[in-house]
Amino acid sequence: MDPVFVGEVLAGLMFFGVIGMLLLGYPVAFTLAGTSLLFALAGWQLGAFDPTNLSAIAGRYTGFMTNEVLVAVPLFIFMGVMLERSGIAEQLLLTMGRLFGRVRGGLGFSVIIVGALLAASTGVVGATVVTMGLISLPAMIRSGYSPSLASGVICASGTLGQIIPPSTVLIFMGDMLAGINAQVQMAKGNFAPSPVSVGDLFAGAFIPGFLLVLLYMAYVAFKAITDPESCPATPVPAAERAGLPREVMTALVPPLLLIISVLGSILGGIATPTEAASVGAVGATLLSALRWKLSLSVLRQVAVSTASITSMVFVILMGASVFSIVFRQMGGDNLVHEVLTSLPGGLTTAVVIVMAVMFVLGFILDTFEIIFIIIPITAPVLLNLGLDPIWLGVMVGMNLQTSFLTPPFGFALFYLRGVAPPSLSTGAIYRGVAPLVLLQILAMATLFVFPELVTWLPSVVR
Fold it and tell me: CA dist 36 to 54, 93, 334, 377, Å?
């Protein structure tokens, strides 16, 4: 039997085999590596795989550990966890709630704004959803908000960390797309291609992230007009109102200055993402110290949480590297290329199919699992067909953000369910996020029709 054909068949079976094993609940990193090695053994026995190709794994791992860009990941995670554990995020939520509470839908507006600010300072979806769920959900329900509206707004705002810089997902995708784009351009004979950086993806995601914030706020405003009982005003007592301006200044301005300094330095070309991340981590620590919230206990909790999240992500990345090597060496990349290029409609259909697959996988897999598996397989084909790498990275980020919200397996829904009171039903959470999922799909369609919303800002700041 033709070894090329056997290899492609095994590559396809391996992809579905990995998905099946993950559905059975096995650990992600070990499933990716273990299943890939089993199929590599089968391919070796059938003459479709050369085991010496596995020697490339050591070089991959060394590359991860020496990659300066990826150092930004634990630093941004540290920054976000420090803002959460020191109580700065909690104070910001409470203050913005008092500021907007006098307006119908005001608490909803405050949650969305704070969600955007936390997204720009944490980039960690789980931490943001849990923080806002613990603080905002009880306050919104006490104020008479519809439980479904409250839970939907909290879940959607918490997932903004997927797309608003400095998203850790965008950092990994920027690093991956930079290498893939360089290889594709060199294969085309372009030996001096325009480089793609993490900063480019941050710039490209800025307007789409702002667009989502506006859509969320428009939805709350629509509910305030058409169904005012679902989001009533919560007037602030006169005694509290007197000190509100000062409270807003102390709660909002310091984190806002930190965010502007971190993102502004990246977008302005003053600092690399890694350098800016170090400034953010130190700045978050200083803010905590200035508010007398920093202690050895808090510092230990932040360090342990940062190490845990970072280790989880990088172990998955290493397992995905084994999968990528075996899949490619058995001809899986050729199989994907043949499938996507033979579709009617060319590039447009190929993009829609890839996005649809990612959306469905988002029901059952974590974000990092999806990008580490799907991007190395599909991005070379899409970029070879002429797709802009920055647009692709931002669209993938927004797509995976949408899958975070989609019932029945959206991860943000489970984060909120874990901290919500028993009186809030799972059905109410599902009903609450449904309109916001449609808004996110609308935003993706808008970016599809108007790609300049993604590509314009990177072209300006380069």
Answer: 11, 45, 18, 14
